[in-house]
From TrEMBL, chains A, B:
<dbReference type="InterPro" id="IPR041347">
    <property type="entry name" value="MftR_C"/>
</dbReference>
<feature type="domain" description="HTH tetR-type">
    <location>
        <begin position="6"/>
        <end position="66"/>
    </location>
</feature>
<keyword id="KW-0805">Transcription regulation</keyword>
<dbReference type="InterPro" id="IPR001647">
    <property type="entry name" value="HTH_TetR"/>
</dbReference>
<protein>
    <submittedName>
        <fullName>Helix-turn-helix domain-containing protein</fullName>
    </submittedName>
</protein>
<keyword id="KW-0238">DNA-binding</keyword>
<dbReference type="Pfam" id="PF00440">
    <property type="entry name" value="TetR_N"/>
</dbReference>
<dbReference type="InterPro" id="IPR050109">
    <property type="entry name" value="HTH-type_TetR-like_transc_reg"/>
</dbReference>
<dbReference type="InterPro" id="IPR023772">
    <property type="entry name" value="DNA-bd_HTH_TetR-type_CS"/>
</dbReference>
<feature type="DNA-binding region" description="H-T-H motif">
    <location>
        <begin position="29"/>
        <end position="48"/>
    </location>
</feature>
<dbReference type="InterPro" id="IPR009057">
    <property type="entry name" value="Homeodomain-like_sf"/>
</dbReference>
<dbReference type="Pfam" id="PF17754">
    <property type="entry name" value="TetR_C_14"/>
</dbReference>
<keyword id="KW-0804">Transcription</keyword>
DNA sequence: TACGGTAGCGACACAGTGTGACGCTACGCC
DNA sequence: GGCGTAGCGTCACACTGTGTCGCTACCGTA
């Protein structure tokens, strides 16, 4: 009875989230999730490639949004400023579904397997940023390095935000970038690297 | 016939590396590895918790080495300089087994599952760095942020090194830190964050 | 040399994940 | 009203990872 298709997917996602929260990720089987959603195990894998992927479903949209955000940043800005602006433009969307983000964060935090997948998604975002920087004229080495570091700082802000209900993502992002700048300029020696 | 114990582990590691290289990670089964090593599947899992973990066996020693390296850095150095010195002290050890590193890098690069695990190991190193920075008096936010970013830069240098046989890790590490410094100071606006 | 303890392994048995193939049925479209 | 198809159920299956039991080669000790 293929009523909607999207309905089953929603039920599966909801069921998985509840079971992961209640009994933990490892203690939850695909059979449990499928039963709760009223479908078969096979149907689960038709909608999600993975047992983990249920929690990273909106990542696809986030990647597209980031791509567009990077595309919309004026070419006059420095690479660092461009990254910052693109990241900040994602803040409202993040803030909009904070409730879900908090729950997800708690589950992922205590499950190594899910933490692995989350790091993969961050790496994917980093690749997107690197592509954008490369298109802005940066060389391969610089584009990748800056993308990795910038994405890492962004991720740090998001994690802190997800763990603290009273915080504000956008402010934390700004703070992270500002702190990095301070740390870099605070070093009296311009290139401490050459001193070791 | 438990001749040595460590012998079986070595044979398993060698067999896995060869099979992963020849047929790819996904196409290689535990049965294949065990057969090639002359043991049972059960024995494989007695030595390695995972099918992936075979490739990340020396990571434990690397984590210990990094911990000691961070412990040996003079307290007078700035946090960034301290990280850099600790990372650089690991360079000889890395350079010593470059052959293995290159093979590993190639396998990991084309296997998402292994890339996930590698990111996990990097995260573990980041945690170690964060602990050290926290012990140096940095607040939680700064310690974690700086550790993440620094470890990311280090990882970027190592990846570039593993992919380019003619390169030198230590030089790349120095280069990465120097470039980050340049990017931060190149921004005419001290805090571009506040301008968006 | 004999003996007891133990570390390492083989041998099942089993739960759980993920994939392939086939058939059915409700839905949209002409 | 018939047709194509998307979505699902149903088997069947390969592979990963764990628990348990029993065996055997090695160790130190007397």
């Amino acid at each position: 009875m293929p009523r909607s298709g999207a309905q089953a997917r929603d039920r599966l996602e909801r069921a998985a989230l509840e079971l992961y929260t209640e009994h933990g990720y490892d203690q939850t089987t695909i059979a449990d999730i499928a039963a709760k959603a009223g479908v078969t195990q096979r149907t689960f894998f038709r909608h999600f490639t993975d047992k983990r992927e249920v929690l990273f479903n909106n990542e696809g949209r986030q990647q597209e949004a980031l791509t567009q955000a990077l595309d919309g940043v004026p070419r006059t800005l420095t690479p660092v400023a461009a990254m910052l602006q693109a990241f900040r433009s994602m803040s409202p969307s993040l803030e909009n579904n904070r409730p879900l983000a908090e729950v997800r964060h708690q589950i992922i935090a205590v499950t190594p397997a899910l933490r692995e997948r989350e790091l993969m998604k961050e790496a994917a975002l980093s690749t997107i940023v690197a592509d954008a920087l490369r298109e802005r004229g940066l060389a391969e080495w610089n584009a990748t390095l800056l993308a990795h570091v910038g994405t890492t700082a962004w991720g740090h802000a998001i994690h802190t935000w997800a763990a603290d209900p009273s915080s504000n993502v956008d402010a934390l992002i700004v703070q992270a970038f500002a702190d990095l700048q301070d740390f870099a300029t605070a070093n009296t020696t311009a290139h401490p690297a050459t001193q070791v």
